Amino acid sequence: MIESFNITSDSNQIAVYAGMVTSSFALAEFSSSVIWGRISDKIGRKPVLLGGLAGTAISMLVFGFAKSLPVVLIGRALGGLLNGNIAVLQTTVAELVKVKEHQPRAYSIMPFVWCLGSILGPALGGALAQPVQNYPSLFDRGSLFDTYPFLLPNLVCVCILGCGVIVGTLFLQETHTQHKHRRDLGLEFGHWLLGMITQLLGVATSTSMGDSRNPDELEKLLPPDEQDSHPLSESSPTHPSTSDVIAARSGPVGAHKAFTRPVIMNIVAYGVIA
Questions:
Q1: What is the C-alpha to C-alpha distance for residues 64 and 37, in angstroms, rounded to an integer?
Q2: What's the rounded Cα separation, in Å, for the pair 241 and 177?
Q3: pLDDT, tens digit, for every residue of 30-39?
Q4: 104 vs 171: CA distance, rounded Å
Q5: If you ran DSSP here, which 8-state letter would residue 4 be given?
Q6: Among candidates 115, 87, 104, which has minimal Cα distance to 263?
Q7: Between the N and C ends of the chain, which has fewer C-beta atoms within 10 Å?
């Protein structure tokens, strides 16, 4: 792509420009990750994660329509600025999986998916780039993909990101303790959609086809006058758990408390690996 801009004929300079494109994303993501973490504490994890996907889609469109190196740098930097939510994703996983014994398995999924995308992404991009030259029988000269030869792989990625936004809107639950109990219209519509699908498929579930338990099991064990005298247990879905109450009462943690010695060692280790 850098070579197609005809900036220079020196292969060494082309490698430098390609490194600049890669570094612009990493630098922008580094600059915005803490900010996105603070925003997720104020508005919730789900809006930030969905906004990150939408921001990545916008940056890919800018990248696909780029015809010069400055536009490419802007597109990659925009992707880093709008998608610096890796920490938010890790926090969401930690809030979803509260059993410590299950957290290592949950955390292992993220690097697996990341590595899988790192393998399939470049292969897909290389296969779909410059489609007029690689697939002349499918793409005509003078078409949109001839003018913008690197647009097609970015459009495919935008479609994948759009599917991710739809799935996240319909089925991703908010995990922040101060925002998880608010009404989520997207999640409600997702549950309704699942109920409709299960009904159409004829799957007998308690949510879509009614409760199949014995009618005797549905009878209340306590008389009506004694039900109100018994408080809800802590495990009741309408009763907030102790951890939620404690988290809701506690304020945001300052930077001097967040950057403990283990955290600093992890940051240094990741920096050395990078």
A1: 28
A2: 10
A3: 888 889 989 9
A4: 23
A5: G
A6: 87
A7: C
